[in-house]
From TrEMBL:
Subcellular location: Membrane
Chief place where the protein resides: membrane
Xref: SUPFAM superfamilies: Band 7/SPFH domain
InterPro entries named among the record's database cross-references: Band_7, Band_7/SPFH_dom_sf, Prohibitin
Keywords (A to Z) from UniProt: Membrane, Transmembrane, Transmembrane helix
Transmembrane segments: 7-27
Record keyword Mitochondrion present: no
Name recorded for this polypeptide: Prohibitin family protein
Species, as recorded: Pontimicrobium aquaticum
Cellular component, GO annotation: membrane
Length: 271
């Protein structure tokens, strides 16, 4: 009976050690994550095998697992850049990215978990300065925003594509100019708009005048043609036709034949 506690104590200690080792060996990879295995007594970071996927994993307690988020992520970057004429421009851009999951081991080995600070952000800053430096403040403020956004995306992608980072999109959220430059551009744009409106009114008025001239010319041509076709003989024939129709009418009247100018009839009604 006295030996039982002595035998049971090592067993209990052994179970505790096993539980501790299992706890250290168990790794759970959450949804949207992947793990990079580091073998302490092996080749170090495993780069020639796919990363550990979602779920529960058992690894040797002397090895380590570095967990990365592999879903699309967003980083917002605010920076100061110079325009083509040397003016200071404040640019705010949103970058959508995710690690290249097929090369996650190489990313960890060469860039570490700080790959955003070491690779992505320097790339976006460099591309933004390069692109914005090709445009004037007026172009940045108005018509070239979409073109600038696309160019920054393309230049950043060229920088990071061999750095095991997948760039999905770059969105330019805001471009802030110096207040004096912004006010000058807005005044210029307003003047251009007013000038365009004035030119439109002039063109509209000119078209209306041309329309009236054409209509008046058409009426004049019609009257001239009509006047040229109405001879005395035609007028007398028309007068005779009208006299016959009036004579057949039941209304009381007096018709004096041949009493008007050029022998046209004069019609006297009962009023």
């Amino acid at each position: 009976m006295e030996k039982l506690p002595k035998i049971g104590l090592p067993i209990i200690i052994g179970l505790i050690i096993v539980i501790i080792l299992l706890a250290k060996s168990a790794v759970t990879i959450e949804s949207g994550e992947a793990g990079v295995l580091f073998k302490t007594f092996g080749e170090g970071v495993v780069v020639d095998e796919p990363p550990m996927g979602e779920g529960f994993h058992i690894v040797a307690p002397w090895n380590k697992v570095f967990v990365y988020e592999v879903r699309q992520q967003e980083v917002l970057e605010k920076m100061n850049v110079l325009s083509s004429n040397g003016l200071d421009i404040k640019l705010e851009a949103s970058v959508w990215f995710q690690p290249d999951i097929t090369n996650l081991g190489k990313l960890h080995q060469e860039k570490s978990e700080m790959y955003k600070e070491r690779v992505l952000l320097p790339a976006i800053r460099s591309a933004a300065r390069s692109v914005v430096g090709r445009y004037t403040p007026e172009q940045l403020y108005s018509s070239k925003r979409d073109a600038i956004q696309q160019e920054i995306f393309e230049e950043t992608k060229n920088i990071v594509e061999d750095q095991y980072v997948q760039l999905n999109e770059v969105l330019v959220r805001d471009v802030t100019l110096p207040p004096t430059i912004k006010d000058a551009i807005e005044r210029k744009l307003k003047q251009e708009q007013e000038s365009l409106e004035y030119e439109f009114r002039l063109i509209t008025a000119d078209k209306e005048a041309q329309k009236q001239i054409i209509e008046a010319q058409g009426k004049a041509d019609a009257n001239r043609i009509l006047s040229a076709s109405l001879t005395d003989k035609i007028l007398q024939d028309k007068g005779i036709e009208a006299t016959i129709k009036l004579a057949e009418s039941p209304n009381s009247k007096v018709i004096v034949i041949g009493s008007g100018d050029s022998g046209m009839p004069i019609i006297l009604g009962n009023q």
